């Protein structure tokens, strides 16, 4: 085997009380796509930070083309030829697209940076991604998916020889993801090594050549050909045991009583027109559509975060005019698990106890309005145990947890309240196989116990696994509804027909229900 571009030898990284990396090895060859896999908390993010100069290793060696190197900063790693696109967006909202793309290597003449000179290089990077964007646009005007693609364009501009992509498709539509894969193939054809971190194993097997699997800070599979391993092999290596996929069978939901949520002829300021569907008690109704379909915008309007121009919203049979999420929670019992857990789901710099108990402070407050820390801890401990949240102590900040555990904390705060309707938006984006499995079981159990759930997910497999019924949206309208029989092939065909406005001939849609 030829000399690797970049190699880790017995890398160790220790934080107070935690051995995050324990003699990890990795060999990255030019012209390959290398999968870096593992559950949340396995050490992937720490390893990426060591490779990019954010953390200095406490043991072991890094070698660049055979020579030992000591990276003291991301800038130094970038100059060497190591680039990274992190899972969490790292753009500057007030800067233009061009300024963000060329930030690390801005075009300059005689020491002066020219904004006009940034346009050409930025446009070249955007064209390579197949992204039709004006480089002069402020990044804050872009969608989440577009901002993620700008992050990738930044890496293209630096011409990295090793490019680390951490969950790069989490915010992308299938079409955008496929464009990204084409870019990755072009990069490897010219000798770049791409490290691909993803929990979507179907993408890994379609794209990657070699694989390293981390578990509990150790490399349990190191730089091996992916073709020699099956999907089940990889999952077993990640979780340390054979992992059976969640299998839920179709069930009958009693819809004879008042609907837990009923939308009739809803039009919103975001552009929705004549949106109608209902959710029965104990039913999981999925909202499925491609990026831009208007699913998240619809529920935000229902929760009072945008205007509802016309139509009727009913919650548990009662007409509802909701002006804020606070009113949605305290008057109507609606909990909302947002897709943006970092900015809207948890307080990263606050303790886990406070994150969980914040929704029930009114109940916990004493006569003088003060909230006892012991009461907060009691509420938090119960939900930590119930959801299996992995933490060092209740008092640690939520920002110190892995992404999957942060999402569990975000869910816990709603379960702490008297929630009678739960809206969950992309609940398992960026979480590992075991955590995803646990979320599916938890949501299924909540529904079985009578909780009505609206599930928004861009993961078609997740939708087919969980939903009792799927409402298909495109262009801010409902295209139809499909009763879920949990047959992936059949369901995917029906849903794709509806997205493209070609209803299946064997199905007839009624208001709020689907009759096969």
TrEMBL record:
Gene3D superfamilies: P-loop containing nucleotide triphosphate hydrolases. GO terms for cellular component: plasma membrane. Its main location: membrane. GO terms for molecular function: ATP binding; ATP hydrolysis activity. The keyword Ligase does not apply. InterPro entries: AAA+_ATPase (IPR003593), ABC_carbohydrate_import_ATPase (IPR050107), ABC_transporter-like_ATP-bd (IPR003439), ABC_transporter-like_CS (IPR017871), P-loop_NTPase (IPR027417). It is a peripheral membrane protein. Residues 6-241, 250-500 form the ABC transporter domain. Keywords: ATP-binding, Cell membrane, Membrane, Nucleotide-binding, Repeat, Translocase, Transport. It is found in: Cell membrane. It holds the Pfam family ABC_tran. This is ABC transporter permease.
């Amino acid at each position: 085997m030829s000399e690797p571009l970049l190699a880790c030898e017995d890398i160790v990284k220790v934080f107070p009380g935690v051995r995050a990396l324990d003699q990890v090895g990795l060999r990255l060859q030019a012209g390959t796509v290398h999968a870096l896999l593992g559950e949340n908390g396995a050490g992937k993010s720490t390893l990426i930070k060591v490779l990019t100069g954010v953390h200095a290793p406490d043991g072991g060696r890094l070698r660049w083309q055979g020579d030992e190197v000591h990276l003291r900063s991301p800038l130094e790693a970038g100059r060497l030829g190591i680039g990274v696109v992190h899972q969490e967006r790292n753009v500057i909202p007030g800067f233009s697209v061009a300024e963000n793309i060329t930030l690390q290597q801005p075009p300059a003449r005689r020491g002066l940076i020219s904004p006009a000179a940034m346009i050409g290089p930025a446009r070249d990077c955007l064209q390579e991604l197949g992204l039709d964007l004006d480089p002069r646009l402020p990044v804050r005007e872009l969608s989440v998916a577009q901002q993620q693609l700008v992050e990738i364009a930044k890496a293209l501009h630096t011409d990295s020889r090793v490019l680390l992509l951490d969950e790069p498709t989490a915010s992308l539509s299938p079409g955008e993801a496929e464009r990204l894969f084409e870019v990755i193939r072009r990069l490897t054809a010219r000798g770049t090594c791409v490290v691909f971190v993803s929990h979507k194993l179907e993408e890994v097997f379609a794209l990657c050549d070699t694989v390293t699997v981390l578990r509990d800070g150790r490399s349990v599979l190191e730089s091996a050909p992916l073709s020699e391993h099956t999907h089940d092999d990889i999952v077993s290596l990640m979780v340390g045991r054979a992992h059976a996929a969640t299998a839920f069978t179709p069930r009958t939901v009693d819809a004879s009583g008042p609907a837990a949520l009923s939308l009739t002829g809803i039009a919103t300021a975001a552009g929705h027109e004549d949106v109608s569907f209902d959710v029965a008690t104990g039913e999981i109704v999925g909202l499925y559509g491609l990026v831009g379909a208007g699913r998240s915008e619809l529920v935000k309007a229902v929760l009072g975060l945008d205007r509802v121009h016309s139509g009727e919203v009913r919650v548990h049979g009662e007409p509802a005019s909701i002006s804020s999420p606070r009113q949605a929670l305290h008057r109507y019992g609606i909990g909302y698990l947002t897709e943006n857990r970092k900015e809207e789901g948890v307080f990263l710099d606050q303790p886990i106890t406070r994150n969980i108990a914040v929704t029930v402070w009114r109940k916990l407050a004493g006569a003088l309005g003060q909230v006892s820390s012991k009461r907060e801890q009691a509420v938090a401990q119960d939900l930590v145990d119930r959801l299996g949240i992995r933490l060092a102590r209740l008092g640690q900040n939520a920002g110190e947890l892995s992404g999957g555990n942060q999402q569990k904390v975000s869910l816990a705060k709603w379960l702490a309240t008297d929630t009678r309707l739960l809206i969950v938006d992309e609940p398992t984006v960026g979480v590992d196989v075991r955590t995803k499995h646990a979320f599916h079981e938890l949501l299924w159990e909540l529904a079985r116990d009578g909780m009505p759930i609206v599930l928004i997910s861009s993961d078609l497999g997740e939708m087919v696994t969980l939903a009792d019924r799927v409402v298909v949206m495109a262009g801010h309208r409902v295209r139809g509804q499909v009763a879920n029989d949990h047959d992936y092939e059949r369901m995917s065909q029906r849903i794709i027909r509806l997205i493209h406005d070609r209803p299946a001939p064997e199905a007839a849609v009624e208001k709020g229900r689907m009759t096969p």
